[in-house]
């Protein structure tokens, strides 16, 4: 497993597409968590949508930095790592390299294990980068606007870090799962994004119509990721697409963890059992 | 089980009507260079993939280097190039080999040696996507050699190489055999197989239809060449002889499948019928002729370059191997 992970890490680290995703993530976090709210705050004529300016500034100062960046995780964070997840396996089908990997010393499950660890590492890097943006940008905002430099507790930072990492890892594994099912990269990327950005939103819109739809909504990975992130957001005014309120963080954590396990198990069964044709 | 490869009624069936490999019994000995021949779609690549554990057999069994296909212990001793070389386009040739070395636990110092072995030392740092077809093929062979394996499975290793590159590759494979490594070589190029391989197996429609040394295959269906006028009459007369097998018109002469010691009887029959016999000699066969006869490819004739016809590309009807069956043996 260690050898597979190091090989996957090497491939991921040197792949331009991964750095493009990472750059987009950093840009979006900075833009939506700090740059746009700050511009609105310092522009007297800007429409705040009814949000008081005191609440606006409260979102972007150090006290709320974990909550502020976490709001982007269930939506565009999930979408970006899902693309990464589909790429790590889907491209191998396209290039025919999966067969080459399977005919080296490690077995198929070891290759999969290496890919999962590499994706978890990618998600870790995305999580750390987002928190770092908050940790850097928020004191600058506070200093510029004479706001207090109060920081959240270590426990809050760790909770935000853990939840963020779990959300991104779940969707990265989800991307890998779809790529394994379809044995390609392009279709899974499209399907994954349509599901995450359209299907989940539509189901959420009808969730209160019937009991059955409510239960379906409560079982979806996106909804539970949004609910888990939302459970940590207590500062006024912080909201983003994908954030939702559900029964409780314990349930969301459990359901999301079950999705992770499901993605891994089904991917492992398919990769282990299926013939590898085209190639290699 | 003996040998680096041993299969026992190995079968791959994709559906009730499609059987890619049918009860294949194949044996590759230690230190042997074994040529695996067959037309496109005959089941060669499916067999090779089964030996590597990439495709699961429907029934039957196989051992490779004493292990079941796909077992890590066996894979550690096998280097393989199947069909087209597959690498990460955004990595250099050297970095691609580095990834494979990490996966297989191969020391990194093998990388430079391998690049040199396949003639890519000066281009090792170029991105794979910038490689020519021949360079990609060289890297594919390099990847197979990287582990310093005891057994190599090479599927069309000279694809895309220029004549000099092909000669170098043949020399390399021969050298690997001389070093005591076993090689299972699948190729369309019959001349290549003839020059390199110790033994040859011919597969058609998933079945192994012939196996032996090149000389043994060439001797199968031995016969004589007869040049007599009028040829059509000679062909007809020969086809009627009870001790004669296959009779074909080949390049203005008639090729008869018969024991060479019956040449005098054939001559007597032709002369007795009033035909003018200008030539009567034992027929020497190339591997290509033997191959076409074994696989039924002779009906379509051979084609220049001593290569097998590609799938979807009918072979030319002229050329050395052009022949007409008069009677099945």
What does this structure look like?
The complex is a heterodimer of chains A (280) and B (329). By secondary structure, chain A is mostly helical. Chain A has one domain (2-147, 154-273). Helix content of chain A is 76%, strand content 0%. Chain A has helices at residues 2-13, 16-42, 53-59, 65-70, 73-95, 97-102, 108-144, 154-182, 186-206, 211-219, 221-231, 249-273. In chain A, α5 crosses α11, α7 (108-144) runs antiparallel to α12 and α9 (186-206) crosses α10 (211-219). The longest helix of chain A is centred in the middle third of the chain and has 37 residues, at 108-144. The model of chain A has no long low-confidence stretch (mean pLDDT 90). Chain B folds into 2 domains: 5-217, P-loop containing nucleotide triphosphate hydrolases (Rossmann fold, 3-Layer(aba) Sandwich); 220-327. In chain B, α3 (93-104) crosses α4. The longest helix of chain B has 16 residues, at 163-178. The two termini of chain B are 36 Å apart. The interface between A and B is medium-sized, with 30 and 32 residues.
- Architecture (CATH level 2) name of the largest domain in chain B: 3-Layer(aba) Sandwich
CATH class of the largest domain in chain B: Alpha Beta
Question: In the residues of chain B, how many domains can be counted?
Answer: 2
Shape of chain B, please? elongated
CATH fold name of the largest domain in chain B: Rossmann fold
- The chain-level mean pLDDT of chain B equals 83
Low-confidence stretches of chain B: 298-329
Summarize model confidence as the mean pLDDT of chain A. Answer: 90
